[in-house]
Specification:
It is a single chain. By secondary structure, this protein is an alpha+beta fold. 32% of the residues lie in helices and 22% in strands. The longest helix has 20 residues.
Length: 594
């Protein structure tokens, strides 16, 4: 039986991450990076595609689970007829090699435990050669090698191409399992002490969360979202992946299944804003630096996304041997949207770097010259249609949000030059561009009969992205066109109290069959728009409804199906958690001001 997406919890080491189910099974893990091939891919297939389960014999679902303190250390409690046991799962922040540590601890009584490790490299397609070495189990196939050891040592045996074990724990006893990956041509890395690693991991997370400056009424929820964003950070470079998974469907049984293990520029200004507002300037600076390295080059070659280290080639490929989550095929790696033309990314880059300057992050010497190059390209190309924020696979259009973000690019250039006249550039030139784009959007994207901005020039469809118009400063919140757009989007895109991205059945727009769930960040945008247009209580009520959608350990996917009452899409999703943090901080600001 397919587990619900929200049945999973996240563990990670700031370079990759794993999903752990309520049944004690790790069903997704890519090693050594977020975007590497998975060695556990049961999430997108079945158990034969790789998983690692530790649970009491005969048990199916845990009694409860939580994260220890404000950390990414997962504690799963199992209450059985003969006793209670706790399984602690985490990935220590690595020195060189990635480790997965699972500690089984007897709480009371006596519990018979069972463990099954089924490694399958290359997304569940390769059965490795297993052998014993120095008392450990070693799995090798091609470039990958994985070592399994236990402390104290537990007897293991091979069965149906899996490594199995059975052992007993009593109150106070602890048994630790450590799974370590390394390139198969290298020597085994130094062994990690699992119990010392646990204490160090908890200390690391305590120190990190203590830096959070938010002290509002939703602090535990905000901190959990910030921890999730930190967990999606690729520490060596500062890039933040959109999600640690690929191909979790936006529609069960449908084809809207995408690889989100890359870093999107569309998230940049929102990520920076959330991190800076919560007191995390170091992370914001690392993200800014990743951004500058990734986008460096010919402005005509600017991409909407990059790999965790700034890689540009992200070819989309289907994996036919995986049936997909709940038979939602195809399973994809890479993302063809990387080749799309999206005007909004120019505005997002300019806004991100402007925000970093305003926050006092020391500017990079070459950053402004890069920005001027981007502006020069935009000046010649902003009138062209594009694929838009939502990466539609239908025909290009003059998307309203794309044009608004082109305006943002020119506006932030003007603001930067006004704040620092010593910088090279012609503010009059960029003011003229800003004014031209503004007039064009107001003339062609606004429907006076319905008093709303539409999804694209001359279209009847609406788009939740137009809720960002007051947020980016294109129009003030009290402008009647803004209020009208908020009301129209709220009415037309509503679904069971939440918001879709754009008009349902818009296959002609996005070029895809089927439907999708409500898009969670759009509902957070609606809460923000309600707040700035004076409807603060309605914003707070919507926000609290959204918070209740988080699963038992505080995580959100990309979308939510309010009819089936389940999360959809890749999980956990950075965009959703960015929206949560941003709205919570805005509401807290209102309370402080009041």
């Amino acid at each position: 039986m397919t587990r619900r997406i929200d049945d999973y919890a996240l563990i990670g080491d700031l370079q990759t991450a794993a999903l752990v189910g309520r049944d004690g099974s790790i069903d997704w893990l890519c090693l050594p990076r977020f975007d590497s091939a998975a060695c556990f891919a049961a999430l997108l297939g079945d158990e034969d595609n790789g998983h690692w389960r530790i649970a009491p014999q005969g048990a199916t679902t845990c009694s409860s689970r939580r994260y220890a303190e404000d950390s990414l250390v997962l504690e799963t409690l199992w209450e059985t007829r003969t006793g209670t046991v706790r399984v602690t799962d985490f990935m220590p922040q690595r020195d060189r090699a990635p480790d997965v540590v699972r500690i089984v601890e007897g709480v009371s009584g006596r519990v018979e435990m069972s463990a099954v490790l089924r490694l399958r490299f290359d997304y569940g397609s390769i059965v490795p050669w297993m052998r014993r070495s120095e008392g450990h189990r070693v799995a090798v196939a091609g470039p990958d090698a994985v070592w399994l050891r236990s402390e104290p040592q537990v007897k293991t045996w091979g069965q149906q191409f899996a490594t199995c074990s059975a052992f007993t724990v009593t109150a106070g006893e602890r048994v630790a399992f450590v799974l370590t990956w390394h390139p198969s041509h290298e020597r085994r890395p130094a062994l990690v002490d699992p119990f010392e690693a646990l204490e160090q991991s908890l200390a690391d997370w305590r120190a990190w969360t203590a830096r959070c400056t938010y002290r509002g009424p939703y602090r535990s929820t905000v901190v959990r979202s910030l921890i999730t964003l930190k967990a999606l950070t690729y520490a060596p470079t500062g890039g933040i992946v959109a999600a640690p998974t690929t191909s979790l469907p936006e529609e069960i049984g449908g084809v809207r299944n995408w690889d989100y293990r890359a870093c999107w520029l569309r998230d940049s200004s929102l990520t920076l804003g959330a991190l800076l507002a919560a007191g995390y300037a170091d992370e914001a600076a690392a993200w800014r630096d990743w951004l500058l390295r990734s986008v460096a080059g010919d402005p005509a070659d600017l991409q909407i996304m990059y790999g965790p280290a700034g890689e540009r080639r992200l070819p989309e490929t289907a994996l036919p041997w995986l049936r997909g989550y709940a038979d939602s095929a195809p399973v994809r790696t890479g993302n063809a949207a990387v080749e799309q033309f999206q005007l909004d990314v120019y505005g997002e880059v300019m806004d991100s770097l402007h925000l970093a300057r305003e926050a006092g992050i020391p500017p990079e010497r070459h950053a402004w010259n890069l920005q001027l190059s981007l502006l020069g390209f935009l000046e010649s190309h902003w009138r062209e249609p594009d694929e838009g924020l939502w990466e539609v696979r239908g025909p290009r259009r003059h998307f309203t949000h794309s044009k608004v973000m082109a305006w943002v690019a020119a506006d932030r250039a003007v603001r930067t030059l006004e704040a620092d006249p010593s910088l090279p550039g012609d503010p009059g030139r960029w003011r003229a561009l800003r004014d031209e784009i503004h007039a064009d959007v107001c003339a062609k994207a606004y429907d006076p009969r319905r008093n709303t901005f539409t999804q694209s020039y001359g279209s009847a469809e609406l788009d939740a992205a137009t809720l960002l118009i007051p947020r980016v400063g294109f129009l003030p919140p009290d402008d009647p066109r803004v209020v009208g757009t908020v009301d129209a989007v709220r009415t037309d895109l509503a679904h069971q109290g939440f918001l879709r991205r754009y008009t349902p059945d818009s296959g002609a727009v996005d070029g895809l069959p089927g439907r999708e769930g409500t898009f969670l960040v759009c509902s957070f945008w609606l809460a923000d728009a309600l707040r700035v247009t004076g409807r603060r209580e309605e914003a707070r009520v919507l926000f609290e409804r959204l918070v209740r959608l988080t699963n038992d350990v505080g995580l959100l996917a990309e979308e939510y199906d309010p009819v089936a009452g389940r999360q959809l899409g890749n999980f956990p999703q950075a965009f959703s958690h960015i929206g949560l943090v941003g709205t919570a901080l805005a509401l807290a600001g209102d309370e402080t001001a009041g």
